[in-house]
Design goal:
By secondary structure, the protein is an alpha+beta fold. Helices cover 36% and strands 12% of the residues. Helix 4 crosses helix 7 (135-149). This is (2Fe-2S)-binding protein.
């Protein structure tokens, strides 16, 4: 049994300690915005923010997450208007969308540490894989999100989802 905080709510998972956090989030907590990609922590599709740091949830066990604060894509912004989400929409940096939640979480963690990242900071700090190749737009997106965070640019209003399902944006 693992106790942790998920999206600012205390949660107790009655699962084995070696269960990957990814499966606890998706299967037990129904937080399906976090995606399964490679299962080895290389692709970033399952990225969540743990105690302020972007981490792949497929390689982090519940035992390792015990007592920690986890933020998923669903908890990043209840109204989907985090500056990174606004910038992804404004820059049209979404293709198929599968990698988007992981990219958003990695970018949010990067900007929380450094609201003025250089292009090199972004390229080195965001190692997620996008099969659609949004990389050139990704740099512009994160730069724009930084401007929004710093108050140098107004954000856009991201519409609420039309259904109760969570796509993860």
């Amino acid at each position: 049994m693992a106790r942790l905080t998920v999206n600012n709510q205390p949660v107790e998972f009655k699962l084995e300690a070696d269960t990957p956090l990814l499966w606890a989030l998706r299967d037990a907590a129904n937080l399906t915005g976090t995606k399964y990609g490679c299962g080895t922590g290389e692709c970033g599709a399952c990225m969540v923010i743990v105690d302020g740091q972007a981490m792949p949830s497929c390689t982090l066990s519940l035992g390792e997450a015990e007592g920690r604060n986890v933020i998923t894509i669903e908890g990043l912004s209840p109204d989907r208007n985090h500056p990174v989400q606004q910038a992804f929409v404004a820059e049209q940096a979404i293709q198929c969308g599968f990698c988007t939640p992981g990219l958003v979480m990695a970018a949010a963690a990067l900007l929380a540490r450094n609201a003025s990242p250089t292009e090199d900071d972004i390229r080195n700090g965001i190692t997620n894989i996008c099969r659609c190749g949004v990389y050139p737009r990704l740099v512009r997106t994160i730069e724009r999100a930084g401007r929004i965070l710093r108050g140098e640019e107004a954000g856009i209003r991201v519409p609420a989802p039309a259904t109760s399902t969570t796509s993860g944006l």
